[in-house]
Amino acid sequence: MRKNDRAKFLNSLEITSTKELTGQKINNMEYFENRQNGTKAPPEEMEEIFKCIADYLSHKWLKSNRSHPLQQLWNRKDALSTNELYFFGSCLKSLAEKDPKWVKEQITHIKSDHPNNRQGAFFEINALGILSTHSQDIKPAKGNTPGFDGTLTLDLGKTMRISIKNYGDSAHYREFNSYASKFEKKLVEVLKEKNITSIQIIIDAINGYPTQANWKKLEEALPEVLDNVEEGKAKMFSVDNFWAFMYGDLKDDYQDCHPAYNSYTLLIASPYHKNEEKNLLDKLDDACANLSKHSNTEDENKINTVFIHLPESASIMRCKEWVENYYSEYPGKPITGVILYQPTVATDLNNDANFIHHCFQLVFQNDKFSKWNSISKQINFTIPVGVANETPSEIKAILEIDGKKEITLLNDKYIFQRGHLYLQQKMEADGTITGNMNRISSGVFTHSVIQPFPDQGSFILSGHFAPIDKLLIL
Predict the structure, then answer these.
(1) Is the pLDDT of residue 396 over 80?
(2) What angle do CA 115, 118, 121 make, to 5 degrees?
């Protein structure tokens, strides 16, 4: 596509973000329930959106503290959970006004115990909700319509059949997180045994995706690696010629770590499994083939599009390249466009603020799209909360070595990050006790250790934060 053609084409596709983040907090709401609020929506709107979720899924069921992602979000009070629920509730409300019967069918899938069906139903509501605006008509497909899940209609009878595909975390990514979680538990045990009260640890798999044997050797080497930890000194080790293991000081800018607790941060990185990209591209191929099979005709009034949700571990730019290659290899396939969508949690480092980042790559065949959209009408994507653009967020590790911050890019890697800093209270001149409780980064938190009287025990105060920067239903 020539540069001018691409600019003209992208001008026909508009992404808007309707809400931005703020630290506002709303109290005394029947369904909103005194949550941290990460939107600029007024209390009345928040209550209306949360009431819609409660009406369709049952308030009693939502309050049940079980493992279902919606129940987890409902019972959490942090801003990220509020943002996810607000996004989902906004889409749910919009579609319920168009087709309440279809929404009820999706709710049945959402409340099921089958994870794939559940996440698929979430994304059908979210994807069609994104396309549901005042300026265009979007309708869910009736019944079990093969090949596509919704129809977008513009003026003059121009329709776009949309196939929706949700691809979540891969088995390899889940396996990596499982082993890393087990290693973290072992680390806490060793820190207690060796009375190490503050340490920062970074581990990188430098020779590929780790096997069970690699993880076992890393865990076995841990006690010896952490022998003779010295304050003020950073050290690097090689474990089994597979892992690069580095540790150094862990400090907070405002308070000291408490000597009676084990404060730590842990970051483990690994290259993607060698089959990660192939497996995802095979799924993209299946999605296109399925749409082509059941919706095998296109003309100037009717086109086909695939709307695909990508997991945070995927490279959206590599997937875009694949789609472009697919068009070149199969020019006759009845597919005009592919919408790649990747929602993640990102951090504005300058303002120390978290937000949901919605990355879109709109990969359309410009000649076919232009013929269909001869009236040059914009197709709108409305995002209830967060920031949307075409640039994927970057994963950065910020390390402090000898007083200097070092930034390392960790794109195209699996990342596991956890940490807890237990900080000593501060006693002001007037006798006031102060403490610091915050979220440093994904999965890393500070806690305040409070001891009001010298002859009494201490207790820990912690804040309400998302456990990790992980989206559950988006």
Answers:
(1) no
(2) 150
338 Cβ contact partners less than 8 Å away, ≥ 6 residues apart: 284, 288, 305, 306, 308, 323, 363, 364
Output the six-digit token pair for 326. Answer: 């697919």
Separation of alpha carbons 323 and 31, rounded Å: 43
Condensed to tens digits (0 to 9), the pLDDT of residues 342-361 reads 999 987 766 667 889 999 99
Angle value at C-alpha 386, between 381 and 388, nearest 5 degrees: 45
Mean pLDDT of the chain: 85
Are 362 and 339 a contacting pair, CB within 8 Å?
yes
Q: Which of 72, 65, 26 is nearest to 48 (CA)?
A: 26
Q: How many CA atoms lie within 13 A of 120 on its CB side?
A: 13
Q: Which residues contact 415 (CB under 8 A, 6 or more apart)?
A: 267, 268, 269, 395
Answer whether 46's CB lies under 8 Å from 29's CB: yes
Per-residue pLDDT, averaged over 97-119, amounts to 92
Cβ–Cβ under 8 Å, residues 297 and 231: no
Number of other CB atoms surrounding residue 117 within 10 Å: 14
364 or 318, which is more confident: 364
Q: Phi, psi (5° rounding) for residue 204?
A: -130, 130
